[in-house]
Amino acid sequence: MEAGERRRLRREAAEYYQGHRVPERMEDALNALFPRCPQDLYGELANYFSKFSKAPVICKLVGRKVFDGVGQPTLEVELYCTVKNYEKRICSTVMASHSQIPENPLPETIEADEKERNDSVHTAVEWVNGSLSTMLRDLDPTDQCQADKILGEYFANKVEEKKEIDKREAERAKGEEEEEEAKVSRAPSGPPASTPKTKKGKKSGRKVSVEVSAIPPAEPAEAVLPGSLAIGGASLVIAKAGAVAARVPLYLHTALLKHPQESPKEMSLPLPMVTLLHCERNSSTKLKLVKEVMFIPPVELSLKQGIKRVLDIQKEMTRLLESSRRKSGSQADSKKGKAQKALPPLKRISHLGCLTTGHDSLEQLLLLMETACSNIGLQLGTDTYLAINCAAHELMDYDKGKYEILTGTFKSPDEMVAMYVEMINNFPFIIALIDPLRKEDREQWRSICCALGSKCYLIAEDAATQISKLRTDQNINVATCSGVVLKYINQTKVSDLIELTGILDGQRRITILGSPDGESSDESLVDLAVGLGARFLKLGGLSRGERVAKYNRLLAIEEELAANGALR
Predict the structure, then answer these.
(1) Host domain of residue 428
(2) b/e map of 245-265 (b: 16 or more CB within 10 Å)?
(3) CA 309 to chain centre
(4) At how many degrees (to 10) do helices 545-563 and 524-532 cross?
(5) How far apart (Å, rounded) are the C-alpha atoms in residues 230 and 223?
(6) 262 shares a domain with 150
(7) Closest by CA position to 346, among listed 379, 368, 376
(8) Span 190-218, average pLDDT
(9) Which of 151-155, 328-332, 460-464 has the highest mean pLDDT?
(10) Any domain includes 190
(11) Stretch 194-208: mean pLDDT
(12) Is 425 an active-site residue?
């Protein structure tokens, strides 16, 4: 290289560095470091200059098929950013499976569900690795609003594409049907069909019909577009990356997204609804009214104390159930004249992370709860409270137009309201009923809220309006209720939850964030619940790793807020 060329390059380098104020900042950095003389000089210099580097931007998303807590396929999304000119993995998220887990599914149903789930996850992986990664490249991960806008537009286009495909398929099927009918009409006609003779003594008149009061038909379930997991996964992983970029926990980042004008000085934790019993409806026992029994610790306890109290009740309840089981087994053996045999331990854990049992009556179930509490010196209604998930949409017998609350015992929607009023009056320690009625029974929802609204929370979970519809029309299909259980599934975005909790806050309804049946090990739901100001958190029981991980995260947040003096 000639001397003149070297001088030109030196001059251009000097201008480049001076233009970026490198000499001035280097002098400032060295002057700031000299009195302290840190052990890691270059580490200190790196920290000093890092504040002048460009903000991270998304460089790619990576989607892959993984498995959730019950072994079902689901989606993991990883996010990579360009940080200081290098590609760096920032975070990942695993979506919870949206499907419900039936108690006794038919083999053909299992096979169809597995195929649908695999196809959906495969499509979601393709979306993430293809279009979404390209569309979100170079976006600031702290710009959640813009990210969710891009994701929403992409999903809307996919919905329209699906409608066009379905329309073409319907037209093709109609054409084939018309062609088949034309062939039949051109075929030579055979002898007229003989009319069956009516037997003597039988009147061919009208059948006597038993008049049954009509009930509103079940509303169709919201169609799940294959691949929709990609939208929820991409939105959540961007929120997590935004928290990392802002150097704050996800719960605080979420709170700032909901209230951007003010940084919260204090934050409160949602009360956990801890599932202790999952009641089988297809067992030999009679009670069908109750699907889940949950304990809610009192507000005056810390979360750590509340969880310990629930665990103590769970241990005592397990002991009572085991003792009762052994006793009934020994009585049966003595009647048959056999020696008493050792029974296997009572350790059947539901996918919800709790014991699975069956009962013959509501009173029998509640007596078990009261006895378990009393044995360890606690009183229901003072030291702890109950919430019951009725899942009433699973109880409706559409032929009879009534709910089957016990095997062979049916009640109309109006009779259900009267039954719940009597139940709460007799057992005031029940402070929440989830899905006491179907969402279609709006008149009865109004009646039960008028009768019990001041005594307990009446919460809609499956009876809640579809999230997408509630966002577009806040009054459509909204059952009168105290609050709604929201789940982060499918195409739900972080911005949707922020908007929806704002709507519920404005309607003076409470927000409950809940885990779906197929939960993953991702703990983000807890941070979202804290950041959004949810009143309750419905995570299931304390006996499955993917659910216990969330309780542990809640405990860690409590400890962190308390240490910072920010726990309300």
Answers:
(1) 251-323+346-564
(2) beeebbbbbbbbbbeeeeebe
(3) 25
(4) 40
(5) 16
(6) no
(7) 368
(8) 56
(9) 151-155
(10) no
(11) 50
(12) no
For tokens 């911005």, the residue is 495
Which amino acid would we find at residue 378? Answer: L
How high is the pLDDT of residue 421? 96
Q: Decide: 90 and 195 in contact? Cβ < 8 Å.
A: no
Catalytic residue among 157, 477, 490, 564: 490
The vertex-280 CA angle with 539 and 517, nearest 5°, equals 30
Q: How many residues are there in the chain?
A: 568
Could you tell me which residues are beta bridge partners of residue 74?
A: 66
Summarised one tens digit per residue, pLDDT across range 360-392 is 999 999 999 999 999 999 999 999 999 999 999
pLDDT band at 246 (very low <50, low <70, confident <90, very high): very high
CB 76 within 8 A of CB 124: no
What does the block give as tokens for 393? 């949409």
CA 38 to chain centre: 49
Q: How far apart are CA 81 and CA 54, in angstroms?
A: 12
Q: Token pair for residue 367? A: 């007596």
Beta-carbon count within 10 A of 442 CB: 16
Which residue's structure tokens are 């801890």? 274
- Of 293-302, 323-332, 363-372, 426-435, least confident by mean pLDDT is 323-332
At which of 34, 51, 68 does a domain end?
A: 51
pLDDT for the residue 133:
97
